[in-house]
Amino acid sequence: MELDCVKIVPGGNPTVLVRTPVPSELRAAAALWIMGDLGIGGEQVGFVDLTGSVPQLAMMGGEFCGNACRALAVLLAEEGVAAPGEEVVVHAAGALEPVALRASLHDGVWQAWVRLPSGAGRARQVEPGAWLVRLPGIVHLLLDAERFLFSAQTCVEDAAQWRMRLGLETEAAVGCIWFSHAGGVLRIQPVVWVQATGTALLETACGSGTMALASVLPHLPWAHGVEVLQPSGAALELTATPAGWWLGGPARVTARARLFWD
To answer: Does domain 2-117+247-260 have CATH number 3.20.20.70?
Structure first.
């Protein structure tokens, strides 16, 4: 099968968007191949359909992904489906309602945004320093890094232990998000597991994990926009508005490719 792919990096979290129709039962296998040595790499894969009146996005495991939505915003703007700065509504698998996207150029760099009308979810404390936050299509465990130390060497195994401990292994996707607010700088270290592909990665950015922080740290001035530093070094901004939560930041297209998957 020939796959028409676009690789976009939305402030980290390299995302491959596949334009070619792929049956849902084959998407997990296709995604693993695309992310592997024979593909073009990346941290996640989304499958898009632009043939209808409303663009469609389905992630490799059916999970919701804020950064993939932001990547789609850039694709829509670059291909003229939406004008730069124009707000467009899309259907994203895992989201309970349609989501709004927009992308605009600033000094030659795309700034891409996604709006979720359902807000940042509610936090349930599971023990001191640890909270569960359910967002559409994904569950996040937020861990205060002052209480639970983050280790790049063991974080994938640590996240797996948390999933087993909390009985989360039947979820479509689970993020384990270590966060810190030292020196007034809010930052995250996200490990995201997707059940359908069996992948668990220390991601370079996580949009939905960033959104989950709002319910764990409600005292921060979200209405004015709060920047959250990602492992990539880029910052994503989360802003609360009457219409919902906007998540945005830089994004760029790094590759366009035709891949040949057996």
So the answer is: no
